[in-house]
């Protein structure tokens, strides 16, 4: 879908979004944030100050080591993070509960669909802990993995049922603390595309369940990105943005360094009335996080304001 095609859509009121007229859409309602997970070689307070120096409006806070892993983040540390957010005038865009190096030093395990129930429960507990953390930080949401890698010995249907059971447990806490729990589809995991997302969301009727729309991930699996935004309008509660190479390899690049045409995607976000954060996620760029953060902001601001 081209930018011109996207602009043909009228600003109808999608479920979960507010109706907007043309003049209001022109104010570019979405805000730009940056994820602290690019700063894993730095303390979270230093990361937040760097993100603010670049000029971002908000920051996604990594709910994992070394930033705000719940077992290592007491009330005094939470107060320090909140004070830094106040000092820098950054809004907490989201808490990243997907990454989980804190247990066995890798992202995906434990997952929601581990064959071993005790190991699986560690992921559920991490998610509920991050929901409580987000509430204390004033973040509106957390995001989590879309089930996880499918074990060769587990059927897809059993994996979906297992994921549903665990997610329902976590959603009870989401409802209690008033923080939304967002699923982030990812290539090669249980839920990676729109059709699978639709099927899984049909199992739920909770206002606290939403979608973390990762632009690069949907590009990797060959989605029509502007159309996917329109399709998921009522679910999108937070957005990740990064570029991807033309071969669709899942490796996060600075926006503008890959093959994604961002203009029609961002226009679609305006059309659906999305006024949350579009957060740059460049966790693969640990050696120069402030530099890539600044470059990304300059390019996205130019695109947004053009």
Q: What's the total number of strands?
A: 8
Please report the distance between the alpha carbons of the first and last residues. 19 Å
The SSE order reads HHEHEHEHHEHEHEHHEHEH
CATH superfamily: Divalent-metal-dependent TIM barrel enzymes
Q: What number of domains?
A: 1
Largest sheet composition: 8 strands, parallel, barrel
Low-confidence stretches: 1-26
Predict the CATH topology. TIM Barrel
Helix content: 40-55%
Number of helices: 12
Radius of gyration based on Cα positions = 18 Å
Average pLDDT over all residues: 92
What percent of residues are in strands? 5-15%
CATH architecture: Alpha-Beta Barrel
Sheet with the most strands: spatial strand order = 1-2-3-4-5-6-7-8
Describe this entry's structure for a reader:
Helices cover 42% and strands 13% of the residues. The protein has an 8-stranded parallel barrel, surrounded by 4 helices. It is built from 12 helices and 8 strands. The chain starts with a helix and ends with a helix. It has 306 residues and is α/β, with parallel strands linked by helices. The longest helix is centred in the middle third of the chain and has 22 residues, at 156-177. Strand 1, helix 3 (44-54) and strand 2 form a beta-alpha-beta unit. The chain has a single domain, classed as TIM Barrel (Alpha-Beta Barrel). Mean pLDDT is 92; it is low at 1-26.
């Amino acid at each position: 879908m081209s930018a011109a095609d996207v602009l043909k859509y009228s600003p109808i009121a999608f479920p979960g979004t507010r109706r907007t007229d043309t003049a209001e859409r022109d104010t570019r309602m979405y805000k730009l944030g940056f994820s602290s997970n690019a700063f894993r070689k730095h303390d979270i307070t230093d990361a937040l100050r760097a993100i603010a120096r670049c000029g971002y409006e908000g920051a996604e806070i990594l709910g994992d080591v070394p930033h705000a892993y719940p077992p290592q983040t007491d009330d005094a540390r939470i107060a320090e993070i909140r004070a830094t957010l106040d000092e820098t005038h950054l809004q907490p865009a989201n808490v990243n509960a997907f990454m989980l190096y804190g247990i066995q030093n890798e992202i995906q395990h434990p997952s929601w669909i581990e064959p071993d129930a005790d190991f699986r429960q560690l992921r559920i507990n991490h998610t509920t802990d991050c929901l409580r953390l987000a509430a204390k930080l004033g973040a509106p949401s957390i995001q989590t993995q879309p089930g996880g890698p499918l074990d060769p010995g587990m059927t897809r249907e059993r994996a979906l049922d297992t994921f549903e059971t665990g997610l329902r447990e976590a959603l009870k806490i989401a409802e209690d603390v008033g923080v939304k729990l967002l699923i982030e589809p990812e290539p090669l995991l249980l839920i990676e595309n729109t059709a699978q997302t639709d099927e899984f969301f049909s199992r739920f009727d909770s206002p606290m369940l939403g979608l973390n729309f990762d632009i690069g991930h949907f590009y990797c699996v060959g989605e029509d990105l502007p159309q996917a935004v329109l399709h998921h309008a009522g679910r999108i509660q937070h957005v990740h943005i990064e570029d991807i190479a033309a071969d669709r390899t899942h490796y996060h690049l600075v926006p503008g360094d890959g093959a994604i045409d961002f203009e029609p995607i961002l226009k679609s976000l305006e059309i659906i009335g999305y006024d949350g954060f579009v957060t740059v996620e460049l966790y693969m760029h640990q050696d120069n996080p402030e530099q890539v953060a600044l470059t990304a902001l300059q390019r996205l601001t130019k695109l947004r304001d053009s």
